[in-house]
Amino acid sequence: MKAHQLEPKLKALRLGGMVESLEIRLGEAEKGELGYLTFLEMLLEDEIARRAQKALSRRLARARFEEVKTLADFDFTYNPKIPAATIRDLATGRFIARKESVLIYGPVGTGKSHIAQAIGHAACRRGHEVLYAKIPRLFADLGGGHADGTWESRLRQYLKPDLLILDDFGLRELGIRQAEDLYELICQRYQRSSTMVVSNRAPQDWYPLFPNPVLAEGALDRLVNSSHHLLMVGKSYRPMRRPDRGSYPSPRTGPSGDQSGQDQPLQRVPDASGSIGQTGSDEFPPNTVYREVTDMA
Fold first, then answer.
1. Which long-range contacts (CB under 8 A, 24 or more apart) does 272-275 make?
2. How many CB atoms lie under 10 A from the CB of residue 105?
3. What is the 3-state secondary structure (H, E, C) of the chain?
4. How far is 239 from 237, CA to CA, in rounded Å?
5. pLDDT, tens digit (0-9, with 9 covering 90-100), for 230-245
6. CA 268 to CA 246: how far, in whole Å?
7. For residues 115 and 132, what is the distance between their CA atoms, to the nearest angstrom?
8. What is the pLDDT of residues 105-124, one digit of tens each?
9. Cross-strand bridge partners of residue 133
10. CA–CA separation, 179 and 182 (whole Å)
11. Among 67, 87, 201, 249, which residue has the fewest nearby CB atoms (within 10 Å)?
12. Cα 95 to chain centroid, rounded
């Protein structure tokens, strides 16, 4: 019997991995490189690998990441204060098994979204269901559910994943309905699955974003106190990616080419909503939105 005669039978059994590698394995067997049991074992491993890859591709598609980001792509040397050991531990996914959450916060451009998506990508590779959503999209989706009567079914889509990643939290104050939606989401996921929140604000500055302090306490007490806190501090990566970067001094050099521009300080820009926060740490004071400022002169 020739290999091509087996293909219809393998396809009927949905053994596409075996179909793809059958000729190669038969060639190895004919050369005496594989015994009968080894031959069968290798075919089975090929099928398992194909199914695992297809399942991973489906999980990554359902996760809706903006980009494919991994920890291998992240330059930990650029900002040495970033807690690399903690990030690598989170990438093992043990926090997901324990139903714990993660809060990632710090200045703009330090790689918070990259790290969040990289941890999510690692979780997908370990078989977890992940969903990535930016907060404005989440509220728009749930708001549409209020309008057309599908709110409960839309909310369930955010309750299903083992890990829900909410990016860009705290860009603006919440409306009443948005605060209620977020409260429901956090409460229903609490101790049932893991949630990751990414923000430019420190957690102590999230409370005043809620129009109702009772909702704020109810939601954030559950989230903040069941989470790993990951503070990302340092210089912004984004100036290094400017298309015209060669025309200007890099963040590591001054206008004259010396090192006077290295480690430029972050300028603190008051939030448009004014003084609304609680007392914070020296590294991350309250009521502040951070941005990297480089000399463009």
1. 273/173, 273/208
2. 24
3. CCHHHHHHHHHHCCCHHHHHHHHHHHHHHHCCCCCHHHHHHHHHHHHHHHHHHHHHHHHHHHHCCCCCCCHHHCCCCCCCCCCHHHHHHHCCCHHHHCCCEEEEECCCCCCHHHHHHHHHHHHHHCCCCEEEEEHHHHHHHHHHHHHHCCHHHHHHHHHCCCEEEEEEECCCCCCHHHHHHHHHHHHHHCCCCEEEEEECCCHHHCHHHCCCHHHHHHHHHHHHCCEEEEECCCCCCHHHHCCCHHHCCCCCCCCCCCCCCCCCCEEEEECCCCCCCCCCCCCCCCCEEEEECCCCC
4. 6
5. 999 999 988 887 887 6
6. 27
7. 12
8. 999 999 999 999 999 999 99
9. 166
10. 5
11. 67
12. 14
Which tokens belong to 50?
Answer: 């194909």
- The string of pLDDT tens digits covering residues 246-289 is 544 444 444 344 443 344 444 444 444 443 333 334 444 444 44
Distances from the Cα of 96 to the Cα of 83, 90, 118, angstroms: 19, 9, 14
Look up residue 273 and give its two tokens.
């909503």
Rounded Cα–Cα distance for residues 166 and 195 (Å):
8
User: For residues 207 and 220, is the Cβ–Cβ distance under 8 A?
Assistant: yes
- Whole-model pTM? 0.77
Q: How far apart are CA 88 and CA 96, in angstroms?
A: 14
CA separation for the pair 29, 23 (Å, rounded): 10
| CA 297 to chain CA mean position, Å | 36
CA 270 – CA 288 distance, rounded (Å): 5
Tell me the C-alpha to C-alpha distance, in Å, between residue 111 and each of 9, 27, 48, 94, 295: 50, 48, 35, 22, 21
